[in-house]
Amino acid sequence: AAWHMDHRFRVRPGFRITDRVAVFTQVDLLPYVQWGSQPVAVMDPFTGEDQPVVYSDALGPPTTDTGAVTPQNLQVTRLWGEVQTDYGLFRFGRVPNHWGSGMVFNAGNRPIDEYGDTVDRLQFTGKAGPVYLMGGLENRYEGLAAERDDYRAVIGSILYQNEKAGLGFLSTYRWKGEVDNRYRVFIADLWAKATLGMAEAEMEFAAVAGRGDLDGGLNDISQRSFGGHIRANIDPGNIRAGVLTGFATGDADRTDSTIKTFSYDPDFNVSLFLFEETMPTLTPAANTIDDDGRTTSAGRTGPTISDALFFKPSIGWRFNDDLFVDVSWMGARRAKKLEEEEPGYGSEVNANVRWDPYAHFWVQLTGGVFLPGKVFTEYEDIDLGTDFNKPALGARLVTTIEF
Questions:
Q1: How far apart are the two ends of the chain, measured CA to CA in Å?
Q2: Cα separation of 48 and 67, whole Å?
Q3: Whose C-alpha in 51, 142, 220, 343 is 20 to 30 A from the C-alpha of 90?
C-alpha cells in the first residue's frame, strides 16, 4: 500500500504584441513535487547538529546534494510565437502537439495528465471556409550539431470542422538523416467527431509503418502497427450514459525485428489502474530514494494502452449543476495471444464524484477496484515468484483551480 499528494501548477500566459503578432509560453511551478518533501532541518543551538524532522516548521524547494535548485522548481516547458498573415496562421517555436482525441498526439493539458507532447516546429495553417490545411517541419536534436543523426519530421493535415461535426486526417513522416543509420516512419491518423441532439460520437484510427536502424544497436527493424477507438455518449438531461471501446495491436514475438505493437499516448487515460499505472508494483527488498520504495520489475502493463482490446461502458447521474456522479466498468484482454499465457488482463470498476461549487474551481474523487486476469494471476517472475492474484484498491482526489 502507498499514497502520495503532489503539486501541479501551470500557467500559460500569452503576450499580444499587435493584432497580428503574439508570443505564448507555458510555465510549470513545483510540478509533481510531493507534499511534505524537502523539510528544512532545524539546527540545535548548542550542538549545531540538525534536529529531528518532527521539529521542522518549513519546507524548501527541491535541491541537489550540492544545494543547486532542480528543474522541479520551475520549468519553461513551451514557448512559441504566432503571426496572423493574410493567408493563414504562422506558428514557430516549442509548441504543444495535439490531434483529435489525443490518442496518438496529446498535449497533456488536463489536471490529471502527466506527460504532454511538445515539439519544436515551424507550422502554417490556412483556412478555406470550414476547411483547415496545415503543414509543418519538426526537429529532434540529439546533441551533436555536426552529425547528421537528428530526427526530423514533416507533418500535414486537412480538417473540416463546424459547430457540430469534425473530420480530419493527419500524416507525419519522420526520418533520421545519417547515411549509415537510417530510419523512416510514417504515421497516418484519421479522426472524426459529431454531435446530434443529445448524442455525441467520436472515433480515431491510426497506423504506423517504419523501417531502418534504431538507437541502441537495433538494426534492420520494421514496424507495422495500428490502433483505434470509438466513443459514444448520450446526455438527455440528468442521466448520462456512454461507451468506449478500442484496440491496439500486439506482437506475439517481441524478439524478432518486426514491431507490431501499437501504443496509445500515455495521457489518453481510460481508468484508475489498468493502462494508467505500472502493474504489479511491489515493495523492493531495500528501499532507496531512487526507487521511491517501489519496484516495477514484474510489471505486466504500463502507463499506456498497448497490445489490448478493451470495452468500457459507463452511466452517470447529474444531481444538480454542481454535483455529478458516474460509475464505469472496463474489461480488457491482449490483442495478440501469446502461446504460453492466457490473454485476459482483468476488469476494473470505478466510481467518480465531481463537485463544481464555484466558477473555476472543482473537485473530483475517483475510487475503484481492479480484479486481475490471467495475464497477472498466472504470471511467474524468476525473482519475485507468483501470487499476483489479489485485487487492487485505490482512490484519487483532484482539487483544481482553472483560469
A1: 35
A2: 19
A3: 142
